[in-house]
């Protein structure tokens, strides 16, 4: 490795929705190669997905890098369910509950996920699964359950404030 010619970490990351037809090749001076990137929407949630495409080289010339972006639109019957889970502390202040479990049950299936660092959660769900039962829980806090219906006309926001099991 020469200074300023890249680092030792090749940064390889497996991106399931992106594949390249060539992952290694050797070029003589003046030669070109075409690499075809194929994207497949093998993701379970709508949104914008990005991944870097980098080439490593064994020359003093740096190869260009690229950003692959895939925008996945929700099907017309899908609705967004989101919210925040907070904990009402004994002193009266509320704090976001990171890692709270959110379980969504319907007549057809169930989803279970955890809240992020700000206590937030979001999931796209087919409205044909209505009605939904939401169960939110975290160790040290009293769980809550409620029934909701999602709609494709606007996101459904269900916030929860859990009480501590003891003060």
TrEMBL record:
GO biological process, one term: carbohydrate metabolic process
Name of this chain's protein: Alpha-amylase
Organism: Phytohabitans flavus
């Amino acid at each position: 490795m020469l200074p300023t010619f890249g680092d030792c970490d090749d940064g390889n990351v497996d991106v399931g929705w992106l594949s390249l037809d060539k992952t290694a090749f050797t070029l003589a001076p003046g030669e070109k190669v075409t690499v075809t990137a194929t994207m497949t929407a093998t993701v379970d949630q709508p949104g914008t997905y990005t991944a870097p495409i980098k080439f490593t080289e064994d020359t003093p010339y740096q190869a260009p890098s690229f950003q692959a972006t895939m925008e996945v639109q929700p099907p017309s019957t899908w609705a967004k369910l989101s919210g925040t889970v907070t904990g009402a502390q004994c002193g009266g202040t509320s704090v976001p509950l990171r890692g709270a479990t959110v379980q969504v049950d319907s007549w057809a299936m169930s989803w279970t996920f955890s809240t992020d660092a700000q206590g937030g959660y979001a999931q796209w769900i087919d409205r044909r699964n209505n009605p939904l039962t939401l169960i939110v829980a975290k160790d040290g806090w009293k769980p809550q359950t409620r029934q909701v219906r999602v709609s494709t006309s606007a996101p459904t926001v269900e916030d929860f404030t859990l009480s501590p099991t003891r003060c």
